[in-house]
Amino acid sequence: MKTRKIGIFNNKGGVAKTTSVINLAYSLQKNGKKVLVVDCDTQENCFSFFLTSTVPNAILPTEYENISHTTWERYSEIEESETDNYDYILFDMPPAMSDEVKSIIRHCHKIYVPTILGEFEIAGLKKVTDEINRQGVKLGGVFVTMYQKANDEELIGEFRRILQDRLLQTVIPYSKTVRESLKNGMPIEAYFRDRAVPPSPTAWKIVHAYEDLANEVMRGE
């Protein structure tokens, strides 16, 4: 399989972009895929999350055998031949529409857009998807994060009506435990296993959602 370069992007912050990159990477490696995570944000939250080594290499290992990570600055300096052995390269992109962000979009094969549900989100999504199209890159799809059925059931129907097949089937539910898992430096499934959380459908709903997202990404290639 040729290396697939996948950008996770929205120019709006607070939509669980970095959380989605971390947990998508984990779900992909569970499927036997070798993944490189590239943190493109100057805050380097994703890079810091995976950091296990202070050796100044361009690509660093993580505690997960099939996940490596780096920053956009380091990635930009390495030869493509050094990344050919990865199945997926995931780019955690900053919430901006700068020239550098546009160049990262152009570097990707597909862009996936996480979004929360809200009255003003549709207009914002149109700007994002229009820009992806202008850069000549395929939209992999839009996926909903932090979904709460009691508040969002009506809105998600409106989103599906407007976005149609551009909205992925996967919906990432809201979970208070995600913040705890990130604080402890673990993807949500690893955190659940470490804490021996019983695998009930309710408790593990968010784990299954990220598995579904990984499957939709893999089917899209």
Can you put this structure into words, describing what you see?
It is built from nine helices and eight strands. The chain has an eight-stranded mixed beta sheet, sandwiched between helices. The protein has a single domain, classed as P-loop containing nucleotide triphosphate hydrolases (Rossmann fold, 3-Layer(aba) Sandwich), CATH 3.40.50.300. The protein has 221 residues and is of the alpha/beta class. The chain has helices spanning 17-30, 45-50, 72-75, 99-107, 121-134, 149-163, 176-183, 188-194, 205-219, and strands at 4-8, 35-39, 60-61, 67-71, 88-92, 110-115, 138-147, 167-173. Strand 6, helix 5 (121-134) and strand 7 (138-147) form a beta-alpha-beta unit.
Task: Please describe the topology of this protein.
Elements: E1 4-8, H1 17-30, E2 35-39, H2 45-50, E3 60-61, E4 67-71, H3 72-75, E5 88-92, H4 99-107, E6 110-115, H5 121-134, E7 138-147, H6 149-163, E8 167-173, H7 176-183, H8 188-194, H9 205-219
Parallel strand pairs: 1-5, 1-6, 2-4, 2-5, 6-7, 7-8
Antiparallel strand pairs: 3-4
Helix pairs in contact: 1-9, 7-8
